[in-house]
Specification:
The protein is an alpha/beta fold. The protein has a single domain, classed as Alpha/Beta hydrolase fold, catalytic domain (Rossmann fold, 3-Layer(aba) Sandwich). The protein has 7 helices and 10 strands. The strands form 2 sheets. It has an 8-stranded mixed β-sheet with strand order 2-3-5-4-6-1-7-8, sandwiched between helices. Strands 9-10 form a two-stranded antiparallel ribbon. Strand 4, helix 2 and strand 5 form a beta-alpha-beta unit. Helix 3 packs across helix 4.
Length: 257
Amino acid sequence: MEAARRILTAIAAALAVAAASAPTGRAEVPPSQEHITFKSLSPSSAGPVPATVYRPDGPAPFRTIVLLHGCDGITNTERAWASWFLGAGYEVVMPDSLAPRNTQGLCAAGEPSFRDHALDAFGALIALRSRPEISPARIAVIGWSHGGGAVLEAASAQMVAEVRPPGGGIASPLLILAGGSDDEEPPAGCVVRATQLRNAGAAIDWHVYPEATHVFDMPEPDRVVRQGNRTFHLRYDEAATQDARTRIAQFLTDHPR
């Protein structure tokens, strides 16, 4: 029990980054990769969660980034981010939260929830701490869309309290990057809550790009998506994407653990 508490305490202290952005460039990752599985802490997972591990050049131990995909699973957006993080010297872990749930997408059916997706991340973090090439106290989590919501759940003191003694409103440093013209998940409410948490002493920061939409990092033509009786407008924003890359790099520098 004490060993489990030490593991989970390190997870709770891990860096959490909620982002709706990714770098431009080719969505290529090195051929040197390893396929692993790990046990999710979520009961919605029918089996082990598969993940791909990409290891950078250089000596271990490595800083590590866990990438939580959006509604449609792992896309070129996440692969482009993986390439960028590898170039910065991070080991990258990309879990596939669709596979153990036999679904093609996370958002249409409303399941799994952000909480389930976050519990996948906690399962990944527990598994990663046993790997000799990883620095246990230097693991970050970044998510897009549904994955971004999962990161917010994982960073909350309420979830962390399930595996360790209670803490503050946010259990780890947190960065939120959002589009001000996002008509799928408007950021106003998130900004209000983030302001309250920072005023209460939480290590939280955010930036809203006024003209950016949901998934503004995805380099595709402008498009309109209809989901039920809702309509969303999606538009690639290169300037916001590049700025987001800069902000995330600085955030990881400012919060090394």
